[in-house]
Amino acid sequence: MFHPKTIYHQGKLPLINPFEIRIDPMERLLLVNIEKDPDAIYKGFEPQYFNDEINGKGLLVIAWRLDLKVDLYFQKGLTLNPQKYDIAGNGLRAMKEVAFEKNKFLINQAGVQVEIVFNDLESRKIEIKVIENHDKERKPFGLLAPMGDAATQPSALPLVYLHDFYFVRRKKTEACLRINGKEHKIDRFPFPLDGTWMYFMRYSSDPFIVTLNPSQSGVMKESAVNEGDIILTKNGSAEEIKSLIGKRGRHQVELNFDPPFPQVNLLKDRVNLEGNFEIKGHISTGRIIGRYWVKKSEGQANIQLQPTGGWEPNEKKLAIRFLYSVAKIFKRWPKTYLWSANLIQDGGTWQMDSKWERI
């Protein structure tokens, strides 16, 4: 599909690109849920380990609260941006640097090996221990985690691709979670997976964390077109965006448009356009599909992007396909996100105000 050439003025202008893909490195993560036996404050914990030039090196534990906010407990050596955590539930409540009494967090062929001990904001001792030593080979898979479902005021579309993803097996696993000396029962997976009973604890030794179109307000810069980052196609005098690509290490994510996204600053007035888009990472993690709309009038452009088709998984495991069909959250959550951007021409520059909202 193509937009007609008649929508554009003649001439050539530098391309402006209203889209942005950010990648946040992470080494590994684990989610431990106690929703069926919650603490007075917390219903789950999410250890994450970093070793990169952006976040630094060390352990972070996200503590998920009953009020859907999060508390962050982090090791010295990490440099964390609080604004990133507004996509987690109702947002960030508190951050605290702690001296972890124990900070072991490994994932190997046997599974998860975790011993984490620290004191929370109420000076209560939090103890997380998961030592997995199953003799059966793991059969991990990939998925797009529904992390964005809990966010109430997101500043970006969170795309948490989890490779080498699996659940902690119950047999031959020492697992406990204590808060202030009280042990809480860890949630269990409701049916066997790969012939094995599991905890609902899940983990990834290869996460790929992407945020799409963080909200912004200010002057747009001319697009820096680097080979492999953006694919353009000519349409008369305009250059349209066919694909944007974000890469880190061996992973990448693509934002593809059909028809290619128009060059906004060359559009004539009173032009209304629409098209389709998809967001996809590795084939094992499926894709998100949706629609885009562009309206141009009196030197101003309005853009909307909505993942109307939600997430389409690509999974062969029968049990996981059944889980996706029963737990609608996995496929549905992207449909509730809407990105809107207003672009206003001010002399030789363009200003953009953009935001995400849940609908």
Summarize it.
The chain is mainly beta. The protein has 2 helices and 23 strands.
Question: What labels would you give this structure?
Answer:
359 residues, 2 helices, 2 domains
How does the SSE layout of this entry go?
Layout: E1 21-24, E2 28-33, E3 42-52, E4 56-65, E5 70-74, E6 92-97, E7 102-108, E8 111-119, E9 125-132, E10 141-145, E11 157-169, E12 173-179, E13 182-184, E14 198-212, E15 217-219, E16 230-235, E17 238-248, E18 251-261, E19 271-280, E20 287-297, E21 300-312, H1 318-326, H2 329-332, E22 337-346, E23 349-358
Parallel strand pairs: 5-6
Antiparallel strand pairs: 1-14, 2-3, 2-14, 3-4, 4-5, 7-8, 8-9, 9-12, 10-11, 11-14, 12-13, 15-23, 16-17, 17-18, 18-19, 19-20, 20-21, 21-22, 22-23
Spell the H/E element sequence. Answer: EEEEEEEEEEEEEEEEEEEEEHHEE
- Number of domain units: 2
Enumerate the spans where pLDDT stays under 50 for 5 or more consecutive residues: none
Q: Count the beta strands.
A: 23
Strand content: over 45%
Helical segment count: 2
Helix % is: under 10%
Mean pLDDT reading: 93
Largest beta-sheet details: 9 strands, mixed
Tell me the structural class: mainly beta
Distance between the termini: 29 Å
The whole-angstrom Rg is 22 Å
Shape: elongated
Give a description of the structure.
- It is a single chain.
- The chain is mainly beta.
- The protein has two domains: 5-20 and 213-358; 23-211, no CATH class.
- It has helices at residues 318-326, 329-332, and strands spanning 21-24, 28-33, 42-52, 56-65, 70-74, 92-97, 102-108, 111-119, 125-132, 141-145, 157-169, 173-179, 182-184, 198-212, 217-219, 230-235, 238-248, 251-261, 271-280, 287-297, 300-312, 337-346, 349-358.
- The strands form three sheets. Strands 1, 2, 3, 4, 5, 6, 10, 11 and 14 form a nine-stranded mixed β-sheet that branches. A nine-stranded antiparallel β-sheet has the order 15-23-22-21-20-19-18-17-16.
- The chain is elongated.
- It starts with 20 loop residues before the first strand and ends with a strand.
- The model has no long low-confidence stretch (mean pLDDT 93).
